Amino acid sequence: MGQLLKEFSDPVVWDFPWERIQNPVELGKYLKERYHDGSKGKKVAAEKEKEKEKEKEKEKEKEKEKEKREKEKEKEKEKEKEKEKEKEKEKEKEKEKEKEKEKEKEKEKEKEKEKEKEKEKEKEKEKEKERRRRRRQRPRFSILSPFTPMLGT
């Protein structure tokens, strides 16, 4: 009985592939593969456990590498976001510059309008001066004044 308990406490028994083995032929194949020599069975099981541990370690390393890659990708994404933000800032600056240029153009147009108004005022003054000059040159009283419409002057 002690021997049976010892055998059942062996991890190899607990690692039995119940899903795979459905009939006695498969069981025979499994036992031959695993325990073809009774003394080697425990060694084989220990080796398989070591292999499983190595595979687990490899999987852990792969996961670590994946995490590193993901972190690198996240960093790259952050860098791209920062670049996009910088581009947006530059665009905003350019828009502001364009607005300033437009304001300057408007100011120049207003100055030109002011100059035109000044010129028009000067022209009006000149016309007024010319009118005054002509009035002064006209004789106030004329002998023919009632007949001037007939003369055409």
TrEMBL record:
Region (Disordered): 34-153
Originating organism: Hirundo rustica rustica
Bias (Basic residues): 130-139
Name used for this protein in its record: Uncharacterized protein
Ranges of Basic and acidic residues composition bias in the record: 34-129
